Amino acid sequence: MAEVRDLDGAMALYKEQERICRETGNKVGLQACLTNQGGLLESHGEMNEAQVLHALALRKEVAHICRELGLNRELGKSLVFQAVHMRTIGHYSEAIPLLEEAYRIESANGLTRLSETIKSILVATRQQAGLA
Amino acid sequence: MQEEREELVKQIFPQLRRLCESRGVTWGEVDLRWGVPDEAKAEGKVLPLCLAEIERCRPYFIGLLGERYGWVPEEIPKELLAAAPWLNEHRKESVTALEILHGVLRIPNMAEHAFFYFRDLDEAMVLQKEKERICRDLGNKLGLIGTLGGQALILKARGDLDGAMALHKEAECLCRELDYKEGLGNSLSNQALILNEHGDIDGAMTLHKAAEQIFRDLGIKKALSASLGSQATILSARRDLDGALALFQEQEHIYRELGDKDALQTCLNSEAAILGLRRDLDGAMSLFREQGHICRELGKKEELQASLGNQAMILKVRGDLDGAMALYKEQASVLREMGDMNGLQECLGNQASILQKGN
Fold first, then answer.
1. Same domain, B277 and B312
2. Is the ipTM beyond the 0.95 threshold?
């Protein structure tokens, strides 16, 4: 077990964690668990469209919970991931407001390196959307 | 409210859990004053976490109130204010007050599910005052020392630290007059705890040391070990890890001598945490293992699962992922038995993280 990654096993455990968090109404735990599931899907390498949509749905729910709980740092990251998935399926104009909000949040948090990265993705996305 | 919490955790909650289990219901307590991680405190997440936990417990809320108003946060995180704008009107209120507002008072239909209980120290104080009057009338100085100490504890519980200190000092004078050394040691220890709360750490250490010497001379081991533990905790907070460890080790030695296994496992946990901070993972592992063994023997599931989690974390850091996984699985099994679903979900996440990252 220690020699190889067992991604299916990991996903099964995250799913059980998700079920418990939903049952007990533990939103903090749920957002962490959904974030990890998203990360797990994204670590598979190239994703097919169904996987992209799944990861997108996970990140959307994470963003929703983060807004509710006021977890701004995690919200910024989930918006960036949503935008990246939107770009992957060619929805450039929908990715732009997500990146703009993420940029605002991360700038306000003083995370200059991350906000600069978001800015460059934003510029590229605007170009792809024909807005630049 | 430490003694009240102890009573609830050790006596009431296990009974409630068993009763619920016998009816096929999973029950678990959520204690808003226990288990908030230090990192969360440092990041100002206490209030967001507490409010989220209250959400999670809806529609139930039980408030057990002592005499303190509670800690007033210097500022409320901006993100939380954005998510819960009502907090803007309550910026100078204590976390306890905000929890009660959020949990009950702002939601009218919570009235049917919310219960509040108040500790009645007033009556206890009336009785102590009467005892004081009788002791003064009779010239019973030993009795007077006892009641002054008792009143001081009530004042401390009410947050009147200066009043409590004054009474302890009066008791101290009487102890010196009577050459009553055990009482003097107790009085000095209690004064040290108050100075510590006041932030006068040096003063607290001086008094603890004086009390320690008295208990050593008298051979009162239980009081000596308590004094050593209080000093070790202060040193640990000051990052004097070597000093803290030495005191905890002496405390450990006393508990072994006294055969006090419950106190011993708490002490081993403190020592292991210090060794962990010093990166002595082998030493920490060995102590956590012994702690786990004692907890198993005493049936202390809460402490056992924490010990297993700590051991797993050490093995994970060392790269022994199989070993870590086995311990996390054991931890999960204890958490399931306890019905601690929050602990269980965290443990599952830790297991998943091992499978995800591999070696």
1. no
2. no
